[in-house]
Design goal:
With 144 residues, the protein is an alpha/beta fold. It has a single domain, classed as 2,3-Dihydroxybiphenyl 1,2-Dioxygenase, domain 1, CATH 3.10.180. Helices cover 17% and strands 35% of the residues. Strands 1-4-3-2 form a 4-stranded mixed β-sheet, with helices on one face. Strands 5-8-7-6 form a 4-stranded mixed β-sheet, covered by helices on one side. The N and C termini lie far apart (58 Å).
Length: 144
Protein backbone atom coordinates (compact mmCIF):
# COMPACT_ATOMS: atom_id res chain seq x y z
CA UNK A 1 0.00 0.00 0.00
CA UNK A 2 1.39 3.37 -1.00
CA UNK A 3 1.75 6.08 1.62
CA UNK A 4 1.53 8.74 -1.10
CA UNK A 5 -1.64 10.81 -0.78
CA UNK A 6 -3.75 11.23 -3.86
CA UNK A 7 -4.62 14.73 -4.96
CA UNK A 8 -8.23 13.72 -5.74
CA UNK A 9 -10.19 12.18 -2.91
CA UNK A 10 -11.95 8.96 -3.82
CA UNK A 11 -14.20 8.66 -0.75
CA UNK A 12 -16.49 11.69 -0.70
CA UNK A 13 -18.74 11.29 2.35
CA UNK A 14 -20.21 8.90 4.90
CA UNK A 15 -24.01 8.72 4.97
CA UNK A 16 -25.88 7.19 7.92
CA UNK A 17 -28.45 4.56 6.89
CA UNK A 18 -31.43 3.99 9.20
CA UNK A 19 -33.93 1.15 8.95
CA UNK A 20 -37.34 2.52 9.93
CA UNK A 21 -40.69 0.96 10.83
CA UNK A 22 -42.96 3.56 9.18
CA UNK A 23 -41.57 5.53 6.25
CA UNK A 24 -44.42 8.06 6.24
CA UNK A 25 -43.82 8.91 9.89
CA UNK A 26 -40.07 9.17 9.32
CA UNK A 27 -40.46 11.38 6.23
CA UNK A 28 -42.78 13.64 8.20
CA UNK A 29 -40.16 13.94 10.97
CA UNK A 30 -37.13 14.50 8.74
CA UNK A 31 -38.66 16.57 5.93
CA UNK A 32 -41.44 18.52 7.65
CA UNK A 33 -39.83 18.65 11.10
CA UNK A 34 -36.08 18.91 10.55
CA UNK A 35 -36.25 20.59 7.15
CA UNK A 36 -34.50 17.89 5.11
CA UNK A 37 -35.00 17.65 1.34
CA UNK A 38 -35.62 14.35 -0.43
CA UNK A 39 -33.02 14.01 -3.18
CA UNK A 40 -33.63 10.40 -4.26
CA UNK A 41 -36.15 7.68 -3.51
CA UNK A 42 -37.22 4.20 -4.46
CA UNK A 43 -40.95 3.65 -4.86
CA UNK A 44 -42.42 0.16 -4.82
CA UNK A 45 -46.15 -0.38 -5.36
CA UNK A 46 -46.81 3.34 -4.90
CA UNK A 47 -45.00 3.60 -1.56
CA UNK A 48 -41.57 5.07 -0.78
CA UNK A 49 -39.38 2.23 0.50
CA UNK A 50 -36.00 4.01 0.53
CA UNK A 51 -34.92 7.62 0.34
CA UNK A 52 -31.83 9.85 0.42
CA UNK A 53 -32.39 13.02 2.40
CA UNK A 54 -30.16 16.08 2.68
CA UNK A 55 -29.97 19.01 5.04
CA UNK A 56 -27.48 21.60 3.83
CA UNK A 57 -24.24 19.62 3.19
CA UNK A 58 -25.20 16.52 5.22
CA UNK A 59 -27.20 13.47 4.19
CA UNK A 60 -29.04 10.50 5.65
CA UNK A 61 -30.71 7.46 4.07
CA UNK A 62 -33.88 5.76 5.31
CA UNK A 63 -35.33 2.40 4.33
CA UNK A 64 -38.51 0.83 5.62
CA UNK A 65 -38.40 -2.70 7.00
CA UNK A 66 -40.14 -5.26 4.86
CA UNK A 67 -43.19 -6.27 6.89
CA UNK A 68 -42.67 -9.97 6.11
CA UNK A 69 -39.02 -9.84 7.27
CA UNK A 70 -39.59 -7.68 10.34
CA UNK A 71 -39.89 -9.95 13.36
CA UNK A 72 -40.45 -7.02 15.68
CA UNK A 73 -37.33 -7.96 17.65
CA UNK A 74 -35.15 -5.29 16.09
CA UNK A 75 -34.12 -2.58 18.52
CA UNK A 76 -33.98 0.27 16.05
CA UNK A 77 -32.33 3.42 17.29
CA UNK A 78 -30.68 1.75 20.26
CA UNK A 79 -27.09 2.90 20.69
CA UNK A 80 -27.12 5.10 17.58
CA UNK A 81 -26.62 8.86 17.58
CA UNK A 82 -25.74 11.07 14.64
CA UNK A 83 -24.10 14.46 15.20
CA UNK A 84 -24.57 17.21 12.65
CA UNK A 85 -21.99 19.97 13.14
CA UNK A 86 -23.50 23.27 12.07
CA UNK A 87 -23.04 27.04 12.24
CA UNK A 88 -25.95 27.74 14.60
CA UNK A 89 -27.51 24.87 16.55
CA UNK A 90 -29.79 27.30 18.39
CA UNK A 91 -31.36 28.38 15.09
CA UNK A 92 -32.07 24.71 14.38
CA UNK A 93 -33.60 24.36 17.86
CA UNK A 94 -35.93 27.30 17.18
CA UNK A 95 -36.89 25.75 13.80
CA UNK A 96 -37.59 22.37 15.40
CA UNK A 97 -39.82 23.90 18.06
CA UNK A 98 -41.70 26.00 15.49
CA UNK A 99 -42.29 22.80 13.45
CA UNK A 100 -43.75 21.01 16.48
CA UNK A 101 -40.77 18.71 17.04
CA UNK A 102 -39.91 18.02 20.67
CA UNK A 103 -36.24 18.69 21.33
CA UNK A 104 -34.30 18.70 24.57
CA UNK A 105 -33.31 22.08 25.96
CA UNK A 106 -30.03 23.15 24.35
CA UNK A 107 -26.98 23.10 26.58
CA UNK A 108 -23.26 23.73 26.20
CA UNK A 109 -21.05 20.64 26.23
CA UNK A 110 -17.48 20.38 25.00
CA UNK A 111 -17.52 24.04 23.91
CA UNK A 112 -20.55 23.44 21.69
CA UNK A 113 -24.27 24.14 21.86
CA UNK A 114 -25.99 20.76 21.77
CA UNK A 115 -29.56 20.30 20.48
CA UNK A 116 -30.92 16.76 20.70
CA UNK A 117 -34.02 15.08 19.24
CA UNK A 118 -35.20 11.52 18.68
CA UNK A 119 -36.81 10.40 15.46
CA UNK A 120 -39.92 8.18 15.42
CA UNK A 121 -37.75 5.04 15.61
CA UNK A 122 -35.68 6.28 18.55
CA UNK A 123 -32.57 7.31 16.62
CA UNK A 124 -30.83 10.19 18.39
CA UNK A 125 -30.08 13.21 16.22
CA UNK A 126 -27.87 15.98 17.60
CA UNK A 127 -26.99 19.35 16.15
CA UNK A 128 -23.91 21.10 17.53
CA UNK A 129 -22.22 24.45 16.99
CA UNK A 130 -19.13 25.94 18.62
CA UNK A 131 -19.60 28.63 21.26
CA UNK A 132 -17.71 30.69 23.82
CA UNK A 133 -20.56 30.31 26.34
CA UNK A 134 -19.56 28.57 29.60
CA UNK A 135 -19.78 24.77 29.83
CA UNK A 136 -23.08 23.33 31.06
CA UNK A 137 -24.98 26.56 30.39
CA UNK A 138 -28.61 25.88 29.47
CA UNK A 139 -30.43 27.86 26.79
CA UNK A 140 -33.06 29.05 29.28
CA UNK A 141 -30.32 30.63 31.43
CA UNK A 142 -29.38 32.96 28.57
CA UNK A 143 -32.95 34.11 28.01
CA UNK A 144 -33.50 35.40 31.56
Amino acid sequence: MSSTLKSNANVKQAVPFFMVKDMDSSINFYVDGLGCSMMENWIDKGKIKWCWLTIDNAAIMLQEYEKKNNTGKEKVGEGVEIFFICEDALAIYRQLISNGIQASEPFVGNKMWVVQVKDPDGYKISFESFTDVAEETKYSELRK
